[in-house]
């Protein structure tokens, strides 16, 4: 088990090195452009070259990459070319914002989807139709539209929540909750839609299986059969959907951050790519790879814990 | 067979999750505290800007909206008032020598950096020297400077390689800031600047890239120009979000879309329309015809100018928030001449005739760079030019390459949307052989003489006449294809007034007045 985790982590690191190396190679074609952007449109070609030299972008490509890597492994991700803000602390602050909304959205998604999915599968009838309707709506209505409508009603008209901005959890927990509520609701909609239908389908399949009939004949209460046995069996595929949902939500967070002016990871990445802020782009690809590797690993481990058939033997 | 029950903790976990979710939803619904920009008094000005400010290192400062932050922290040698006129800043007076090659500035006494150190000629000299020797956006602005001397504790002498009509304006912007010599070369300056300006950056309340909080200094010499004790500048890149923040009372001043003016007015906001803050123009750069032969012929450039129904474009593309123009100079500046706006009136058939006379009866094709800011206008420009037989192909250019793509001389003509500036700076950018909008470094003996005269002229009224002649030369020879000025609309909460009218092109807190203060 430990060996498995270590192997997966090592593979993740190799992947991170490869991805950042490719990113750097791709960025190398625009080193001149980045230097021109910094010195501005009025600059002479000499000035651009001076700027390039000052940033060290004139050195051989591989030497530059090794230099970046050797600093990165020591936790030094450099300074932004444009704001001179240390990239590591900036990413940490911004990742906090994005993970706040993504993890909260994920948590709420799981709770709502499990309740709706299980109810739909076990009760059928009107409950099922309502659950499917909710799911369908979540699929059909874009996040952005939901976000705009919620801001208008809840923030501008009713003033229950702020329309924009973010307060860190450490600063004021109540305000933290209030700043992330509308973004979380907007972000979770499509997740609830896909996860609910996934759980509903898997639960129906599970409840038709032989072992459920056996349990019923032994007089095990329905509640226990549904929650302890069938749900456990249905959890595997749902977890896979959830891990995909997490990665999708990270992408969706970009738009949500834009609409709510949240200083998150997506916004940061977007602006850095527009400007060609190389230290930030490099660090973002690094964190992106590590996040995806980490989430997939956690999902596999949880899956193994829930489902003995998927358990890793080594 | 005994059925193995799942781990009992799973129930507890599920309950905990539901519990957390419940708390999360419940507490959020209760919390309705307003985010708080005070709206009734002039105590706090909370405004939003679209992009993250650059480093606050004095050598890396950029103009545009981000100037609200650094212009509040740093003093500049000169300042521009809300009518765009140069006024004493940190320098209480200035004088050019008769050959316009030596500028002597007398500094105000008693000024202090927020660190407590005095502002003197040595600090001014050190900052100017640092800016002109450090690669960055302002190094080129001081290219005409030969040396800076500090002959007395409050006198600075700037010697020039050649007369530079735009220098005084430059000293009212990023190139004229005064940094604290003790800290300005240290890395911390990028995020924690030390200046002698009206405000200090409150590092405790500032979140880099998100919100910048400024606290007014009570010992500032020009305190009356800054009625707000606190200024909060929020970075909100989305226009809808920025409008939402205003409506929800999270900010109390900001630019809004022209379509929203009515709804803001009825919600009790003050609104102010500024008719021109930027100009959209085609740069017909290849005036020798080296990349695209037809552009070498002035008849072709004139024909292009006649292809645009400018009034209709303002109405449809800008929904009326702007005005048509055939010249690139700031309409509030001394070089603007309303009479020139009838030079190349919209007339596609006359344009076609001109093209035929020049030998291009069948038109020609041109590739132009498609940039972030040109996208919304491309279809209209494509159609207008197609109507006179010019086929445009737009080549996508990634945002980080836009500066270098234009500078590469690959594109004989291209569309720009440039913020307006003062006339001397515009003359330098658009007409001097090294001006960055004069990409192909075009020269003309008549124009060179005019530029030289403008640079040497010390009397503003006479200089204005020369700038008008420069403008006339540009329009007559169709160096550019200006189409319209883009306006902007400000909304402010009652009690706060936007004082700008487009005359000053700088973003400064001096443009905001409190109700109890005369504008």
TrEMBL record, chain A:
Family the UniProt entry places it in: Belongs to the binding-protein-dependent transport system permease family.
CDD domains: TM_PBP2
Main location: membrane
Membrane protein topology class: Multi-pass membrane protein
InterPro entries: BPD_transp_1_N, MetI-like, MetI-like_sf
Protein name: ABC transporter permease
GO cellular component: a single term: plasma membrane
Domain ABC transmembrane type-1 positions: 95-299
Keyword annotations: Cell membrane, Membrane, Transmembrane, Transmembrane helix, Transport
Keyword Transmembrane on entry: yes
One Pfam match: BPD_transp_1
Transmembrane segments: 9-27, 91-121, 133-156, 176-195, 238-260, 280-306
The keyword Lipid metabolism is assigned to this record: no
Domain of life: Bacteria
Subcellular location: Cell membrane
Gene Ontology biological process terms from the UniProt entry: transmembrane transport
UniProtKB/TrEMBL annotation, chain B:
SUPFAM superfamilies tied to this protein: Periplasmic binding protein-like II
Gene Ontology biological-process annotations: peptide transport
Domain of life (superkingdom): Bacteria
Cellular component aspect of the GO annotation: ATP-binding cassette (ABC) transporter complex; periplasmic space
Keywords annotated in UniProt: Signal
InterPro entries: Peptide/Ni-bd, SBP_5, SBP_5_dom
Name by which UniProt lists this protein: ABC transporter substrate-binding protein
Species for this entry: Streptomyces himalayensis subsp. himalayensis
Lineage of origin: Bacteria, Bacillati, Actinomycetota, Actinomycetes, Kitasatosporales
């Amino acid at each position: 088990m430990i060996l498995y985790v270590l192997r997966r982590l090592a593979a993740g690191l190799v992947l991170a090195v490869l991805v950042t190396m490719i990113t750097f190679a791709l960025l190398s074609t625009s080193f001149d452009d980045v230097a021109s952007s910094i010195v501005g449109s009025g600059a002479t070609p000499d000035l651009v070259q001076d700027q390039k030299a000052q940033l060290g972008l004139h050195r051989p490509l591989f030497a530059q990459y090794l230099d970046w890597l050797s600093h990165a492994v020591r936790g030094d991700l450099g300074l932004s070319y444009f704001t001179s803000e240390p990239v590591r602390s900036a990413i940490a602050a911004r990742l906090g914002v994005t993970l706040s909304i993504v993890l909260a959205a994920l948590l709420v998604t799981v709770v709502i989807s499990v309740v709706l999915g299980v109810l739909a599968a076990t009760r059928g009838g009107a409950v099922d139709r309502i659950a499917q309707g909710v799911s369908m709506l979540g699929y059909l209505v874009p996040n952005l539209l939901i976000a705009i409508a919620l801001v208008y009603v809840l923030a501008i008209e009713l003033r229950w929540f702020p329309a924009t901005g973010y307060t860190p959890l450490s600063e004021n927990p109540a305000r933290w909750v209030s700043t992330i509520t509308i973004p979380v609701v907007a972000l979770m909609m499509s997740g609830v839609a896909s996860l609910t239908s996934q759980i509903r389908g898997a639960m129906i399949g599970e409840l038709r299986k032989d072992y459920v009939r056996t349990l019923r004949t032994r007089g095990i209460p329905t509640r226990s059969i549904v929650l302890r046995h069938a749900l456990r069996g249905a959890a595997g595929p749902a977890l896979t959907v959830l891990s995909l949902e997490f990665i999708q939500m990270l992408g969706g967070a970009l738009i949500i951050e834009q609409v709510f002016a949240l200083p998150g990871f997506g916004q940061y990445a977007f602006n850095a790519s527009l400007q060609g802020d190389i230290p930030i782009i490099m660090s973002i690809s690094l964190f992106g790879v590590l996040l995806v590797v980490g989430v997939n690993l956690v999902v596999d481990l949880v899956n193994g814990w829930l489902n003995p058939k998927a358990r890793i033997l080594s | 067979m005994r059925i193995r029950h799942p781990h009992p903790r799973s129930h507890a976990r599920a309950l905990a999750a539901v519990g957390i979710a419940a708390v999360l939803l419940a507490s959020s619904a209760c919390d309705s505290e307003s985010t708080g920009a005070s709206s009734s008094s002039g105590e706090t000005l909370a405004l939003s800007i679209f992009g993250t400010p650059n480093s606050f290192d004095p050598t890396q400062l950029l103009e545009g909206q981000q100037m609200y932050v650094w212009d509040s922290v740093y003093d500049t040698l000169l300042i521009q008032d809300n009518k765009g006129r140069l006024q004493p800043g940190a320098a209480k007076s200035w004088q050019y020598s008769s050959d316009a090659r030596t500028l002597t500035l007398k500094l105000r006494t008693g000024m202090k950096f927020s660190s407590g150190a005095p502002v003197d000629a040595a600090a001014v000299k050190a900052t100017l020297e640092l800016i002109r020797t450090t690669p960055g956006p302002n190094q080129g602005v001081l290219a005409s400077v030969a040396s800076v001397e500090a002959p007395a504790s409050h006198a600075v002498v700037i010697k020039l390689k050649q007369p530079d009509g735009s220098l005084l304006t430059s000293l009212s912007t990023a190139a004229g800031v005064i940094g604290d010599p003790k800290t300005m070369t240290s890395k911390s300056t990028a995020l924690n600047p030390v200046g002698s300006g009206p405000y200090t950056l409150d590092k405790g309340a500032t979140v880099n890239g998100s919100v910048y909080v400024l606290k007014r200094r009570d010992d500032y010499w020009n305190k009356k120009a800054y009625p707000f004790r606190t200024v909060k500048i929020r970075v909100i890149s989305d226009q809808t979000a920025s409008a939402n923040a205003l409506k929800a009372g999270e900010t109390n001043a900001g630019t809004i879309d022209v379509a929203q003016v009515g709804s803001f007015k009825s919600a009790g906001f003050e609104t102010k329309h500024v008719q021109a803050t930027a100009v959209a123009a085609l740069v017909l750069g290849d005036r020798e015809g080296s990349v695209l032969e037809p552009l070498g012929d002035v008849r072709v450039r004139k024909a292009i100018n006649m292809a645009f129904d400018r009034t209709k474009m303002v109405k449809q593309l800008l929904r009326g928030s702007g005005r048509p123009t055939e010249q690139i100079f700031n309409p509030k500046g001394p070089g603007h001449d309303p009479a020139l706006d009838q030079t190349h009136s919209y007339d596609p058939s006359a344009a076609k005739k001109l093209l035929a006379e020049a030998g291009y009866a069948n038109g020609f094709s041109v590739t132009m760079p498609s940039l972030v800011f040109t996208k919304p206008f491309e279809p209209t420009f494509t159609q207008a030019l197609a109507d006179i037989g010019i086929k445009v192909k737009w080549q996508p250019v990634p945002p980080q390459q836009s500066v270098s793509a234009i500078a590469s001389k690959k594109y004989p003509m291209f569309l720009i949307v440039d913020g307006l500036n003062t006339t001397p700076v515009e003359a330098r950018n658009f007409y001097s052989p090294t001006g960055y909008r004069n990409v192909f470094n075009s020269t003309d003996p008549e124009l060179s003489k005019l530029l030289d005269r403008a640079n040497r002229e010390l009397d503003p009224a006479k200089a204005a006449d020369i700038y008008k002649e420069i403008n006339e030369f540009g329009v007559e020879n169709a160096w550019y294809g200006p189409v319209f000025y883009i306006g902007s609309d400000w909304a402010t909460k009652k009690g706060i007034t936007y004082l700008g009218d487009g005359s000053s092109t700088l973003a400064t807190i001096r443009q905001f007045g409190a109700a109890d203060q005369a504008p």
